[in-house]
Design brief:
Blueprint lengths: L2 E14 L2 E14 L3 E5 L6 H8 L7 E6 L2 E2 L5 H11 E5 L10 H6 L10 H14 L15 H13 L5 E5 L7 H16 L4 E4 L11 E6 L2 E9 L4 E6 L3
Helix pairs in contact: 4-5, 5-6
Length: about 240
């Protein structure tokens, strides 16, 4: 398997009112291309902070992060922004769709930040990803005209439109009812079977059932790393780090 991400001794601290809060401590792990990973653990354990670091939305206080062979700390702000737009797709709990843009306009938006602008190519890419999430028939609708599940499907399409190296999903079913949540999870599972690398933060055990790897965090530390055995569809404990 091709290694996509390597974290070595990652730590993250926040300083508020002269009080230091340590969100992450000594996180070291590798993520390979094609994995479907669930980061689990109680609220406040550092899951979302870790996902933000993986997505270059935040940066560690200590440690090294290599993404697709690049040492992140050596990159300029512009280089990091380019990597975010070209290599990383984001799916958020609150969908983060722009209300006064249509489905098509929301999905095409990441493509408009590319240096080369080819409207015909953009149109074809949007058509392809909307077909993958079964939302082509809603291309001219606005987010307010969609159900929560449909909005999240559009958010997934937007994450896919740049053909990213990795999809980062932060509680993607958190604002959905059980039926729509299951629909979105099945979509993510299908995308992973087609080759997408996915890292998902979730507090719901049901959301991690289809993942190929479960990583548990507690108090900012990685405490358990389990990989699913393909042969018997059961989880095998690879390592316990605390």
């Amino acid at each position: 398997m091709t290694q996509l991400i390597q974290l070595s001794g990652i730590g993250k601290s926040f300083l508020t009112q002269e009080i230091e809060t340590r969100a992450l401590s000594d996180i070291s792990l590798s993520i390979n291309q094609g994995e479907y990973i669930a980061f689990t653990g109680p609220s406040g354990c550092g899951k979302s902070t870790l996902l933000s670091i993986l997505g270059l939305l935040d940066f560690p206080s200590i440690g090294e992060y290599h993404l697709d062979g690049l040492k992140v700390s050596d990159l300029s702000r512009q280089q990091k922004a380019t990597i975010r737009s070209e290599k990383i797709g984001f799916v958020f709990q609150s969908f983060n769709l722009i209300s006064d843009l249509t489905v098509y306009e929301n999905v095409v938006l990441p493509l408009t930040y590319q240096k080369s602008s080819n409207r015909q190519l953009h149109k074809q890419k949007v058509k392809e990803v909307l077909e993958r999430v079964e939302m082509t028939h809603r291309a001219n609708h606005f987010p307010s005209q969609l159900s929560g599940g449909q909005q999240q499907r559009v958010a997934v399409a937007r994450a896919l439109v740049n053909n990213p190296a990795i999809i980062l999903a932060d509680e993607p079913t958190g604002n959905l009812d059980s039926k729509n949540a299951q629909s979105v999870l099945k979509l993510l599972e299908q995308l992973n079977r087609e080759g997408s690398t996915i890292c998902m933060v979730t507090h719901d055990p049901r959301s991690s059932e289809s993942c190929t790897r479960n990583i548990d965090l507690l108090d900012g530390r990685l405490v358990k790393d389990e990989k699913k055995s393909i042969s018997n569809n059961a989880f095998q404990l690879e390592s316990v780090l605390a």
